[in-house]
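Subject: Sanity check before I submit

Could someone independently write out the structure tokens for this chain? I want to compare against mine line by line before I put it in a report. The sequence has 179 residues.
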Amino acid sequence: MTGRKYAAAALAACLAFILTACGGSSPAAESSGPVAENPGAAAPELSPGRENTGQKEEDILIYAHVGDEVLKIVPEDNSSAEDFISLLGEGDVTIDMEDYGGFEKVGSLGRSLSTNDRPITTQPGDVILYQGSSVTIYYDTNTWSLTLLGRIQGLSQEELKDILGGGSVTVTFSLKENI
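---
Independent answer below. Compare away.
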């Protein structure tokens, strides 16, 4: 009997941890990106500035096609970005993205990639891999443990918001500027 009580307590603790880590059980939290900052977490490091980002020095760019707009993304220098580039080398990837939390657009990649999560504060234009299988474009800031895939170049926060719009948006990621 004591073993069953211990197992039940351990299961309850695990479930509480999972629900807390996932930000609750609202439909938005189940199907989309991260939630607001965790006040109990250690102070996160800020995303590096645009000038010194650790981004690849190579000429490889990722393009996000949103309607008639083409957004240039400089990939981050990590294995997740390499996996994403490899996936795009097989063909364009189209993702239906939903607005979440008033600071991002998020949609399922349809498969998992390697992660390089670290505590960061996102900046407008950050392209994030969330939980290994969702891609997120940030148009505002958020603090969380995330994997940075790259950064959109040359757009202000307002320009990015205008391009992404207020609701759902379809984004096609490609290694080609013209598709």
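---
OP: Matches mine. For the report I'm noting this point. Residues 62 and 136 are 14 Å apart (CA to CA).
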